Amino acid sequence: MDSMSVIDRNAPVGVFDSGVGGLTVAREIMRQMPEERIIYFGDTARVPYGSKSKDTIVRYSRQIIRFLRTKGVKAIVIACNTASAYALETVAEESDIPVIGVINAGARTAVATTRNGRIGVIGTEGTVGSGIYTEVMKQMRPDIEVVGKPCPLFVPLVEEGLLHDSVTDEIASRYLSMLKGKYIDTLVLGCTHYPLLRATLQRLMGEDVALVNPAYEVAIELRELLQGMDLSCSSDVVKCGEKYQFFVSDLAEKFTNLATSILPGEVKETKKIDIENY
Questions:
Q1: Entry pTM
Q2: Is 80 a catalytic residue?
Q3: Which one of the listed residues 151, 191, 233, 240 is annotated catalytic?
Q4: Going from the N-terminus, what domains does the chain have, and what CATH number goes with each?
């Protein structure tokens, strides 16, 4: 980290995910830090990540970080729980700029929120299978009980734009019935696509279950990190180029259509790049 002194505080923040889900993180960063510029990358050619191996996810993450570095980013947010679970430790060690993921912030909030010590985590098979949420939360509070439930169909449903659909309702109620029997009082949305299904999930779990959205928490963590390292954008800076830029590895038009519903007015255009070149 010796080269911290040369990082430009007015450089953009890089945010990446397997697809549109990470836009829930970008949205929170925009709300919490309206002065920051963002370069977003969605790996739409290779979504979903949750069913892939650790080696593959590490390779994808390295490629995406190399791409984001060509854009001169000052920090990187891995807005994907699977990549945070499998690749964060490796890529953070390799990087001379700060790299943070979504898991620690979400775990911390869940532990602070639970009243009965029973926490549910829904995520991809990769995230839930890694056991990382359980591990991180148990370090914070050893006596809690954590129940993980993979929900592999949620990401494709969100990527298809089926946010309010009877099919999504049916699958969600099937996934969540197991968790309801465990009397959890807190549910971690352990995939950045899932806040887009929040209304459905809350309705099915009932009002007594608190939903934790790590996207919100990681935006606050980023703000504190940048402030602490004196890397916050000085708000008087003249913005060069687009404030928010969006890149994908495939299907730019489809991404733009979905992104517009998540970030109204912010996604002017999406550029497609060949991620395999990085």
A1: 0.92
A2: yes
A3: 191
A4: 2-101+216-277 (3.40.50.1860), 103-213 (3.40.50.1860)
